[in-house]
Design a protein that fits this description.
- By secondary structure, the protein is mostly helical.
- Helices cover about 75% and strands about 0% of the residues.
- Strands 1-2 form a two-stranded antiparallel ribbon.
- The radius of gyration is 21 Å and the shape is globular.
- It starts with a strand and ends in a 42-residue tail after the last helix.
Length: about 425
């Protein structure tokens, strides 16, 4: 992509902070919505089963709309596309609480998910472009900021719920505030456009094969994430027979380690590269899964869920970054990976439940452990291909940062300093 040419270090720092604020605002919408689901269920008079069906529609909407993001990005430029799509997403927070019944809720959640998916692709594509120009990893911390935003949104939603506030009023105020924050933040992102000789992507083009392979790695990580978030507390209650407080602590442990790892992950990626980082993360997540499956004591399982969160945290950000560098259409490749990961998040909770019904919840987390192990085996797909867009240096492939490329010290164990 082309666009701004006077990219001074100060301008790049400003762009990095701006895209981080965008990720935070995007996450805050999700957190704000999640805390008011009980209000929405009561307002629309839904049973648990019908609510579960309705909550599948955001993922359906996102999966169908994501391929459009590449076309919009090409037509309007990265900044303008992100400005419009992010505003659509933040304002869509108003919609679900307005639904009076199940059909209306399903439709509004479909729209809500569609705007979420398109803005997700646009901000990740621009995040990767910013990372490329900085020459160091930032995608992990950007996704960490998304988690921070989700925590802030859920905290505000919890306060509103405890105060008995009408979700329609709460979401109206939150949507307007987040839209304002988003519009201000977008002003600082890079203004990039497709080159004059760059062909516009098709409206509903299938993702390239490279994105499908990379998406498989994201699938494993998101499956483990969805399973752990939705089923860790149930595992503690039904398998370990703990009280509700300790069961809730397992979910908190998973979420906290995952958020912390994302915020700190960029330095690890810069030092060791994407492939080694994902291999190590997969090993940690596998160890965590083994603790959950075989120890079957609260302390061991609590540590296990923490290790799973720590191990899978940076996989999806790195998958997005690798997809963007896998071919000539970054937004289209990111859309392909995002569609696969959204699908994984959609089916993981129900798949875990189905396996648990047929066998046991312990066997379900055995499946999670196998998928974590697949990260170790499949991490090589994240290695940059020859001729791909330049990104942060990878110690495994870049001769400047390779351990074997430090003639001054002859140190074969520590990579040389990352180039600026």
């Amino acid at each position: 992509m082309t666009g701004e040419t006077d990219l001074t270090p100060r301008r790049l720092r400003r762009a990095r902070f701006a895209i981080a604020a965008v990720f935070c605002a995007h996450g805050a919408v999700t957190g704000s919505f999640a805390t008011r689901i009980p209000w929405i269920q009561e307002h629309a008079q839904l049973s648990a089963g019908t609510l579960g069906m309705a909550l599948a529609f955001p993922a359906v909407g996102a999966a169908l709309a994501m391929p459009l993001a590449g076309r919009i990005n090409h037509r309007f430029g990265a900044r303008n596309a992100l400005r419009g799509l992010l505003a659509m997403w933040t304002l869509s927070l108003i919609l679900p609480s307005l639904a009076p019944n199940l059909p209306a809720l399903c439709f509004l959640l479909f729209v809500y998910g569609a705007t979420a998916g398109m803005s997700d692709v646009a901000m990740n594509a621009l995040g990767v472009e910013t990372e490329n120009r900085l020459g160091r990893s930032i995608m992990s911390s950007l996704h960490g900021m998304w988690s921070v935003g989700a925590l802030l949104g859920s905290a505000a939603g919890t306060v509103a719920a405890h105060a008995g506030a009408d979700a329609r009023l709460h979401h109206l105020i939150a949507a307007l505030a987040l839209t304002a924050v988003g519009l201000v933040a977008v002003r600082g992102v890079l203004d990039l456009r497709g080159g004059q000789d760059e062909e516009a992507p098709a409206h509903f083009a299938l993702p390239p094969k490279s994105a499908l392979v990379i998406g498989a790695i994201g699938f494993c990580a998101v499956f483990a994430e969805g399973a752990s978030m939705d089923w860790s507390a149930v595992y503690f209650r039904d398998v370990l027979h703990t009280d509700a407080g300790l069961a809730a602590a397992s979910t908190t442990m998973f979420a906290l380690t995952m958020a912390a790892a994302r915020l700190a992950g960029d330095k690890v990626v810069d030092r060791f590269g994407a492939v080694r980082t994902v291999r190590a993360g997969g090993a940690l997540a596998t160890a965590g899964g083994l603790l959950v499956v075989f120890v079957r004591q609260p302390a061991g399982s609590l540590a296990g869920f923490g290790l799973i969160g720590l191990g899978i945290a940076v996989v999806v950000p790195l998958a997005f970054a690798a997809a963007a560098r896998s071919g000539p259409a970054p937004a289209q490749a990111i859309a392909g990976v995002a569609t696969i990961t959204y699908t994984s998040g959609l089916i993981a909770p129900s798949a875990i439940g189905a396996v648990a019904d047929a066998t046991s919840l312990v066997v379900s987390f055995g499946l999670v452990t196998l998928l974590a192990l697949a990260l170790v085996a499949g991490a090589t797909v994240l290695r940059a291909r020859p001729g791909a867009e330049p990104g942060p240096a990878d110690p495994e492939t870049d001769p400047v940062t390779s351990p074997a490329a430090d003639p001054a010290t002859g140190n074969q164990d520590e990579p040389a300093a990352i180039r600026p």
